[in-house]
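User: Fold this, then the next.

Assistant: Folding the first:
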Amino acid sequence: MELGFAVMCGKPLIIVKSQGAKPPSDLTRTDWIEFSPDNEKGFRRSLRQAFRAINETTKFEAIKLGTSLEAERMDCAIAFERAQRAFLLTGDSAIIDNVRSIRSRLKDSSSIDDVHRLKDDLGVFIRQAEQTDQ
């Protein structure tokens, strides 16, 4: 359940299982790294590749977030989604300020229901992220 929740939230996972172990049925379409004492070198190589892939994803998410924040006509919901993903990947507290920036751009649009929901979601994120940052 925890793995599914992490995936749903966009948190990247590196799953390691022993060579003969069967993966849980809900992970049959998920990639994992198999560990075999007979192939430690291959395991280390696979693990390094997985970490490189996560680092590349982190850089890409930062670029997407920066692009969203710089847009003259920002899609605030997409910018917020990118901020959440970037925060999950890095835990960088500067992203909390990015979310505040998104929220401030929404202040002038008071008649759209989706905007109200998004404002509430932004506030919840800021409070939760600040608690993890302590």
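Now the next one, as you asked:
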Amino acid sequence: MQTAPVFSSQPKTSPGSKFDLASILKARRRRLAKLIDFPVLLWSGTAKSRNFAANIYPYRASSHFLYFAGIPLENAAIRIDGEELTLFIDEATPDDILWHGPMPSRDEIAQRIGANKARPLRDLESLSSGVALLGERDETVQSMEKALLHQGVVLTRHRPEGNQALERAIVRLRMIQDEGAIAAIRKAINVTVEAHKAGMAATATAQASSGTEAQIRAAMEAVIIGHNMSCAYGSIVTIAGEVLHNHRYYNPVKPGDLLLADVGAETFDGWASDITRTWPVSGKFSATQQDLYDVVLAAHDFCIEKAQPGVEYQQIHLVACEIIAAGLVDLGILKGNPTDLVEQDAHALFFPHGVGHLMGLDVHDMEDLGDISGYADTRERSDRFGLSFLRLHRPLEKNMVVTIEPGFYQVPAILNSRETRDRYAEMVNWERLDQFSDVRGIRIEDDVLITEQGCEVLSKALPTTANEIENLVRSPSFHLPTVKAF
């Protein structure tokens, strides 16, 4: 059974209400035509079923398809040849309409996205000769070929000179956000800001009722769902902030805990947001918690100040590393000169990841294409402990959207290893570090638009200072329903 287009009930203007979708998409095709001289075929993907065909996992169209098609169609393809766009999708069947309601026709969809032609999927075979498919390793491409093969359509691969020409062109386009993209990202961020405020306000109720992280997550995601959006990634809402991608929510929240929430909304057409805040469950940071929080905040603020066109993103990362190292020296946790400590990766004991990444149609934008998305030509990922997780190694440019997200973490697997203890024996005051045992993880993350003269913090409506965070946590809490385990 074919699942019908999922956008039928969405508003007609997208990504931003004052922008015409067809015009935005045409401009994107025009820019692509300046970078490549061969036709391209992009596939939306299909939903994956669980135990029977109609019971599907949540569907998400390919981001590369979304960039040029604008709406989350399923089981559809587009052929781009210069400025010309051809849509391939089958008409909804009576069964589709029975289960999913009235659906727009193929021609109506084509008109909305500005396609020059609209054809059934079976016509793909006759028009696939000489087209480039995105990334042979791409799972979406593989699923396209498999799905179309079942319909008797065989595609001929074309890899122009085997030089990743298409991938590099798409990276060049998607890396610099146009007005429609920025408008959509702002919408996602605005909802995410409200979700974080709801999570902070719900914390007191969760703590008072001996609740868990799940209750705070529920309050945050309720705001996102209530705005007809979804989560851009699996929410991280945890007192175990040292687990960088923690997707468990069963821990009780108690006074003395810090709660780290990394939660972002995604618009219906795929544009992401990514915000992290860390707050005290009790509504008041302890002295040690605030000391370390202020170190991370100092790195966060200075990195944002330095984010402007022409600045190397790796340099911003190294600035964050040095500020964190200097702060830890001031607190007596590290010993030595901050610059020397960073060169020896001592800071990475507590800040092992990169300071951020590109953001757009994916929260870690275009990382399905590998390091050609985040790393400029001729640059390779370092094998250094303090640089190996850096996701972006390019000079910043106007209309890039990036995250700035320094942190401090006490990861037992790192700090308690014999190799670590031996290597950094003279650089870490382990006894002093024990006095900060009530800090498991802190991260402060904002979404930043690079502008002509500097940058704009798109998520600035969500405060970052310790005092402001405490006030939000102590604000009137949400009344969450009591949930009893079976």
